[in-house]
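Q: I'm writing up a methods section and want to include an example of the input and output format. Could you take the sequence below and give the corresponding predicted structure tokens, formatted cleanly so I can copy it straight into the document?
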Amino acid sequence: MSGPSTETRYLNKRVLVTGGAGFIGRRLKARLAELGAAVYSLDNRPVTAQGPNEIQCDIRDAKALGAEVGRISPEIVFHLAASIDRAPESAKIGPMLEVNLFGALNLFEALKAVPACRSVVVSGTGEEYGSAVPPFLESYREDPVGPYSFSKLCVTYLAGMFFKVYRLPVIVFRPTLAYGPGQEPGMFIPSLIRTLRRGERFEMTAGEQVRDFIYVDDLVDAYLKAGVAGAGFGEIFNIGSGETSTIRELALKIASLMNKKALLDIGLKPYRPAEIMDYRVDFSKA
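A: Here is the clean output for your methods example:
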């Protein structure tokens, strides 16, 4: 006989989503509410929804974060809060570590004192693999290509250590690139669409980069399954769609659907330093 479904296992569970005001966090919160969970959202951005479950708190503030986590006593945690600035400047390393690494440390320390906590799903990134030979496997030696991926790799190792030493039930996801309605305007797909809708020219690289884009609701499904899996603690799991295209192909497809191909300026921008030219993951383990 099969066990309870993912849908029923969230009923009345206390679930904390850090970064709940973000693109993926908002979709995840909505799904959790539909499944009957008691959803608590924590973000450093001003609270837009009223009520005790929408909390403005900076994960860098260990004391405030610890107090909120202790009050909520979450059974399941999705840690999505992070600085996602992908600028390559070395000056970004310190601030990135302060938010991503030490913010995660503050959260893990607070959760150590919560006996009810049964699962912590942490959001990493496929960018941690850098220029490794694709498709990326979880067993690969990582090769971060900037402050962002370096900071996320530090969080991955921190999570592994907290499981081994303190038995915190942590799972790390390394997803590919999420997309969908409500995404931040600075990301490639929404930036392209918004620019073309305004009738403006869109400057981009030659677009030879291969990318795996995963639809946000599919990624949320993966998070939901992991949150109640009861297994995989201390491990890393790649998450992707299994479908790839070059950035050039994607831009041409979107522009064609909008009848705006003439506005594409392909090849005017240089690639980023240490650009990952082939970004694919093997997600057979997941």
